Amino acid sequence: MGQFQLHPALGRIGASVNFTQANLMMVVAGLLTFGLLWLGMRPRAMVPGRLQSAAEMAYEAVLGMCTETIGPEGRSYFPFVFTLFFFILFGNLLGVFPYFFTFTSHIAVTLALTVFVVGLVTFVAIRIHGWHFFSYFVPQGVPVALMPLLVPIEVLSYLSRLISLSVRLFANMMAGHVMLEVFGAFVIMLGGAGIIFLVPAAFSLAVNVALIGFEILVATLQAYVFAVLTCIYLHDAVHLH
Amino acid sequence: MSDAPGEEEPPSFEERLKSARSRQGLDAPPPSSAGSSGDLGGMSPWGIGLRVGIELVSALVVAVAIGYGLDRLFGTKPILMAVFVLLGGAAGILNVWRLFAPRPTRGPKVRDGGR
Q1: Which of A146, A154, A227, B4 fits a 20 to 30 Å CA distance from A110?
Q2: pTM of the entire predicted model
Q3: Contact A156/B50, CB-based, under 8 Å?
Q4: Nearest to A153 among B51, B54, B87 (CB)
């Protein structure tokens, strides 16, 4: 699984500060997001061109997601969700290219993102509701005798967001790339094994082509799911129940 | 009125008005039925299965981690972990229930499994 190993990038400078190709890809993803918006919106045309349309559609899609899921208060969280969505989207999509690295296929990266999201959600909830936030863990209409059992379950359910959100993105990205590598190995091994094996080798190649298309779908879908779940958590934090 | 036999009944005035209004964009299109069940609107069966599995396992992972940590903290080696495994399983079921439970309606405070 050499594709998931980290190597220092940018020569000796990168090696001395441990700047790996994952960090490089993160920088590239950030620059691509910035470039899409900056270059796209530079013409400021009334009738947008192609790049400007893309930038405007991206903006409006994420804004719609925020206001629909969170409510009218969602506008204040729009920059965060937008940044998160495009960082993950470009990270996933960059990974589909050969020789590039998928930084979202590392649980360290996705878990860090998730810790940040859950931390922010908790902070927002406490900021808005104060001590009332802790009533989130107390289900209503339940006898008091069951509280010692139900409150820990609610707390665990809240904390399990950390794992479910990060593992979902990580597992989807890693599984897709492992499948690509496995079928790629089939192509080489079967292709070199003899003339009869050329047919299954060609079949593996065809599967790989289909998998690449599937990977693009998964990359977009998982970035969307991550952003939508962030919005749902923010909705809970703002409205509490 | 020319209702020749065999011809279909012409749509009523309300229907024609409604279609004209929706054509002109005056009425919002009817909300799709996708939002009827929790957060999974229009997901594929594979997606739902993966989602449910992750929700189940993640609660258990968090619970086991907390139980193990508390056990090491207090030196009560297997007890708290066993308790937290049960709690984590319950929390996983709760997560799945919330996934499939209908979203509570806006407005009056209804708390029946919506998060």
Answers
A1: A154
A2: 0.79
A3: no
A4: B87
